[in-house]
């Protein structure tokens, strides 16, 4: 197991900065997600941790030892790309033992290790079968077996499930997480899929244009997004944004929108200017007594819940409400918000106001 400390890590390719000065700590045994859209610098960050790319500046420590300038082979790390690269003509045993044999581990020791890994993954009965004839799921397990057989201090995974279809992807995500719970090795995992990050991660770093937007537990990032980017990137359907200009005093618990006042998290500091009121669809409540009114534009039935699109005096918003609450397009409804579950942002800086 390993603790990884990233300090002011930066990477430039010529005049382009792929990763701005970044700092975070990955604790021993954590399943840690690097999340962000394509091109945000997550792969470059992972490759620097692996030693496949050298930082322009900053440092990487693994278990307190600085490894920033060390080669990949000196870091005791296993790098897992998309889990496909198996040898179809070889049997499962040979595929899994390959990394050990190529490192000249004695055959008997390698065999023991393979048996142990097969037990963990539940594929003992497949050991002498040819990989070419296995189902997709079993093949993924073999690939995973080959990654974990070396027993490294830490796993680095770059979109390992990226090429799988949605259903199988979800299944393998659960397998990976279960495997992690059994083995407890520190894992750093790159994904652009916010759902995958939320489901699997103990902690998430959200990156955008080479900059860390937020770092924290999935619940904290979902409930208290630090920036407009994070609020929009995480959650489906995304958080509603109502834009307005106004002023807030320190200690305020409501903010005056275009016509009405709506509740906000208790504000530490005064603010004046363009703001964005952010509310997740599941936090919009219908209320007969509320003075804040909207008009139903569309209803999308999803089974137990429905997504209702509404026109309000401050813009359009979506509510996720129980399907038992019957509403029709054209119908007026009262809307209720809770200051503890909404977010308020300074539109110019994109930062949350708290
Ligand atoms: P993706 O999911 O598309 O791989 P990413 O978030 O992992 O995206 P990176 O691969 O880290 O992004 O790339 C970040 C930026 O750095 C991109 O704009 C990319 O084009 C650029 N980049 C990455 N590697 C190099 C390189 N060797 N030379 C020049 N530019 C690079």
UniProtKB/TrEMBL annotation:
Gene3D superfamilies: 2.40.50.100, Nucleic acid-binding proteins, P-loop containing nucleotide triphosphate hydrolases. Transmembrane segments: none annotated. One of its GO terms (molecular function) is ATP binding. PROSITE patterns: ABC_TRANSPORTER_1, ABC_TRANSPORTER_2. Pfam families: ABC_tran (PF00005), TOBE_2 (PF08402). It comes from the Bacteria. Keywords: ATP-binding, Cell membrane, Membrane, Nucleotide-binding, Translocase, Transport. Residues 4-234 form the ABC transporter domain. PANTHER family: MALTODEXTRIN IMPORT ATP-BINDING PROTEIN MSMX, TREHALOSE IMPORT ATP-BINDING PROTEIN SUGC. This is ABC transporter ATP-binding protein.
């Amino acid at each position: 197991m390993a603790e990884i400390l990233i300090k002011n890590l930066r990477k430039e390719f010529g005049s382009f900065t792929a990763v701005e000065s970044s700092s975070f700590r990955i604790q021993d045994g954590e399943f840690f997600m690097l999340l962000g859209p394509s091109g945000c610098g997550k792969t470059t960050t992972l490759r620097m941790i692996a030693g496949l790319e050298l930082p322009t500046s900053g440092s990487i420590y693994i278990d307190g030892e600085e490894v920033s300038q060390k080669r990949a082979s000196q870091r005791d790390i296993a790098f897992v790309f998309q889990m496909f690269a198996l040898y179809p003509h070889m049997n499962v045993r040979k595929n899994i033992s390959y990394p050990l044999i190529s490192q000249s581990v004695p055959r008997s020791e390698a065999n023991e290790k393979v048996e142990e890994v097969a037990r963990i993954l539940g594929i003992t009965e497949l050991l002498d079968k040819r990989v070419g004839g296995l189902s997709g799921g079993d093949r993924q397990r073999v690939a995973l077996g080959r990654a974990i057989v070396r027993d490294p201090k830490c796993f680095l995974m770059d979109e390992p499930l990226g090429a799988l279809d949605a259903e199988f992807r979800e299944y393998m995500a659960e397998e990976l997480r279960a495997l992690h719970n059994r083995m407890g090795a520190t894992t750093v995992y790159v994904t652009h899929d916010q759902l995958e990050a939320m489901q699997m991660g103990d902690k998430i770093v959200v990156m955008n244009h080479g900059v860390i937007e937020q770092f924290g537990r999935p619940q904290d990032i979902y409930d208290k997004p630090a920036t407009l980017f994070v609020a929009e990137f995480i959650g489906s359907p995304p958080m509603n944004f109502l834009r307005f200009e106004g002023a807030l005093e320190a200690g305020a618990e409501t903010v005056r929108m275009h016509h009405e006042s709506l509740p906000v998290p208790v504000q530490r500091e005064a603010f004046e200017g363009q703001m964005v009121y952010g509310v997740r669809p599941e936090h919009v409540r219908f209320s007969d007594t509320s003075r804040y009114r909207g008009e139903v534009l569309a209803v999308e039935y999803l089974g137990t819940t429905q997504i209702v699109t509404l026109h309000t005096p401050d813009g359009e918003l979506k509510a996720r409400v129980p399907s038992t609450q019957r509403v029709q397009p054209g119908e007026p409804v009262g809307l209720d918000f809770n200051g503890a579950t909404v977010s308020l942002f300074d539109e110019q800086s994109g930062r949350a106001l708290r």
